[in-house]
Specification:
FAD/NAD(P)-binding domain; 11 helices; 4-stranded parallel sheet; 419 residues; alpha/beta
């Protein structure tokens, strides 16, 4: 009697797409291996709150093994993928090779500096916990250094914060820094007044939140200005260094710069040996497979997947979640010998962005909301999407405490590195 080995499905990346695929394949008639270079899943939409001392990292992250503990057919490998051999059906890691029958690449995205990679050391982006805690250290150290110096010019530089890029991350970051300065830190110092902090949001385009309707963009800009955020539109950053930025022809001295202007895909296209699109994504078909390789799926920020209008779907968490669930349905159908589901169609339930205390914008297509109602909806939806009851409860409690006491509870300067 010959015992046939079960199909082996390898999922690279434990973000929203990869985890939803793994959940959908829990206890299926196949072995599932999830590979990630970290041992935790990160809820990236709230990462900016870690960077601005609103939440601690453990509140928005959960161990991958804990998340998949009830999936008896799933195992987790912590490692960095270095390549894929499509002919041999092998995923290469630094210290081993993992064979697959089906491969799901859900490796997310990274920062894009538009040909100025040297800016990364002085203008960090926000993609992982290390980024968030590093930015938090820079922000809090800026206030500490401003408190200690007697030089008015140096103090102004320490108290100037520049956020580059006015998409959702940039808008949320600028608003959160403004609230930190004007609310949470207002009584903590004796030499300086944290409310003297200057927060500048720079956007090369004509408006903030360009993906939102113009009316919501205008509402968001007004909310930012009420928080004392300076909004600079239509003027790209030409230079960026440790002492500040050049915006058009204007030089702005600043000690803390945050990059939120763009992202690029992971190295998946290089691994597969295929031609990427202009931002490095892998072009896939409507079933999310690599053309000519039905055993390889590419999802999330890594994929150039066509939407209903033919344009590529945006790199949003809901897109990745739905794609991961779709891939699981396709693979379950294959395992059962059933016909494949219809091509993937993204159901757009709307996009949201928050701009500080009791202010947000939400575009649900048929309904556009701003102000307090949008802020409440934003909080409810984000708490619901967090993994784990404990994280939901703790984050909700922290938000309620911060709202009632005007305090931010994670103002710790940790880690090594110079400011």
């Amino acid at each position: 009697m010959v015992i046939m080995a079960r199909p082996h499905i390898v999922i690279v990346g434990a973000g929203f797409g990869g985890l939803n695929a793994a959940h959908g394949l829990a206890n299926a008639d196949a072995d599932v291996t999830v590979i990630d270079r970290r041992n935790y899943h990160l809820f990236q939409p709230l990462l900016y709150q870690v960077a601005t001392a609103g939440l601690s990292p453990a509140q928005i992250a959960q161990p991958i093994r804990s998340i998949l503990r009830k999936a008896a057919n799933a195992r987790v490998i912590m490692g960095r993928v270095t390549g894929v051999d499509r002919q041999r059906r092998i995923v290469r890691l630094a210290d081993r090779e993992v064979a697959y029958d089906t491969l799901v690449l859900a490796t997310g995205s990274r920062h894009a500096y538009f040909g100025h990679d040297e800016w990364e050391s002085v203008a960090p982006g926000l993609k992982k916990i290390d980024d968030a805690t590093g930015i938090r250290r820079r922000i809090l150290m800026a206030f500490e250094q401003a408190e200690q110096t007697n030089d008015p010019t140096a103090r102004r530089r320490f108290l100037t914060f520049v956020v580059i890029g006015a998409g959702p991350t940039g808008v949320e970051m600028a608003g959160a820094i403004a609230e930190l300065a004007h609310v949470a830190l207002r009584n903590d110092f004796r030499t300086i007044n944290p409310r003297d902090a200057r927060i500048v949001l720079v956007e090369a385009g004509p408006r903030v939140l360009a993906a939102f309707p113009p009316s919501l963009s205008q509402s968001a800009e007004q909310s930012l200005k009420r928080l004392h955020v300076e909004v600079r539109l239509g003027r790209p950053v030409n230079e960026c260094d440790a002492m500040g930025v050049t915006i058009g022809q204007e030089r702005l001295e600043a000690s803390t710069i945050v990059w939120a202007a763009g992202v690029a895909s992971s190295s998946a296209a290089s691994w597969l040996g295929v031609e990427p699109d202009r931002v490095g994504r892998v072009v896939v078909g409507r079933d999310l497979t690599l053309p000519g390789n039905p055993e390889i799926f590419v999802i999330g920020d890594t994929a150039h997947a066509p939407g209903r209008d033919g344009k590529p779907l945006p790199g949003l968490a809901p897109v990745a979640k739905q794609q991961g669930a779709y891939v699981a349905r396709v693979l379950r159908a294959r395992l059962a010998g059933r016909a494949a589901p219809a091509p993937f169609r993204y159901r757009d339930f709307g996009t949201m962005a928050t701009i500080g205390r009791r202010s947000a914008v939400a575009d649900f297509g048929w309904l556009k909301v701003d102000g307090t109602l949008a802020w409440l909806l934003w909080g409810l939806i984000h708490v619901t999407f967090l993994i784990g009851f404990r994280n939901r409860f703790v984050v909700l409690f922290d938000w309620m405490w911060s709202y009632a006491t005007f305090q931010s509870g994670a103002r710790l300067i940790t880690g090594q590195g110079q400011h």
